[in-house]
Amino acid sequence: MQIPIEPVDAVTITTVMDNSSDMLLQDQGPAKRGGPGRDVPKRSARFLEAGETADALLAEHGFSALLAIQKGDTTARILFDAGMTPDGAAENLRRLELPVKDIEAIVLSHGHFDHTTGMHGIVESLGLGNLPVYIHPEFWHQRRIAIPGREPRDLPATSKHALLGAGFEIIEERQPSFLLDNSLLITGEVDRTTEFERGFPVHEAFINGEWQPDPLILDDQAAILHVRGKGLVVLTGCGHAGIVNIVRYAKRLTGIDQVYAVIGGFHLGGQHFEPIIGDTVAALRDLAPEVLVPAHCTGWKAQHALAAAMPGAFIPNSVGTRYEL
Predict the structure, then answer these.
(1) For the segment 115-158, what is each residue's pLDDT rounded down to a tens digit?
(2) Can you tell me whether residue 281 is helix, strand or coil?
(3) Domain ranges for the chain
(4) Residues 21-33: what's their mean pLDDT?
(5) What pLDDT shows up at residue 84?
């Protein structure tokens, strides 16, 4: 099955929230660091002689990105994920001078709390939601991490009652769906085709009244754009479906072979995923994106392996970075 995706003229992806903050990073290709040609906002600091300091961006174990998609004379803004803390993403949007009220829709990549909790601050800034929110039907599951020999650790689930009560229009799609006149494609459930991306073995979900293995985390979805003359841009939250599965699925869905940029969490950290770093790096090198930004849950070892294997494409991420694609 191929889905015709309309090309866009350009997209700017701003990292609203990520695990990393680095004020010393320099511009690199499409990555622009710091504010868009403005002075950094200030805040009071009683123990500094000047009495003020930079109102620096926050970093946390979570992910959120703002897409500004240009097509002709129009620019549409979409929020992809909302970070881990109630106010973190909204605060960073404020400090970046990116008004929440300009957001036209929200895509939540999956139901894990480090991508959804920041909806609290978004609502506080909006007053009422009054926006479409795109999710997969299994987004609502209660989840936990069940490591053998240890007490299971619950992962806070998103409240459907709270989201609906805030005025959001919840749109649940298992299949691929379009936003912005067929220009932004949300993958829905991603086909699992690689031999090595087998999911999260200690992940469980509460289904039909009992805890069941949930290694595939089927609600994991990504966003796809086709930038005219450059190729596909793929944005992931955690990449639980497997970053190689996701990129290959994007190519199959659109019928477009050229991969321009892959940005987001690749979930290659920790003992369950480090064994597949080599296979993942080799497959991504074959896919040959011009821009590669492994963020959030990718992990230190995978970051270094990708940087070594693809030095011309690799760009380290940091909160506030804008990718002008």
Answers:
(1) 999 999 999 998 877 899 999 999 999 999 999 989 999 999 99
(2) helix
(3) 10-39+54-320
(4) 93
(5) 97
Instruction: With a cut of 50, say whether residue 189 has pLDDT above it.
Output: yes
- Which numeric CATH code is attached to 10-39+54-320? 3.60.15.10
Cα dist from 63 to 36, 41, 88, 146, 264, whole Å: 21, 23, 10, 23, 8
108 φ, ψ to 5°?
A: -110, 120
- pTM for the full predicted model: 0.95
Specify whether the CB–CB gap between 23 and 35 falls below 8 A.
no
Assess whether pLDDT exceeds 70 at residue 37.
no
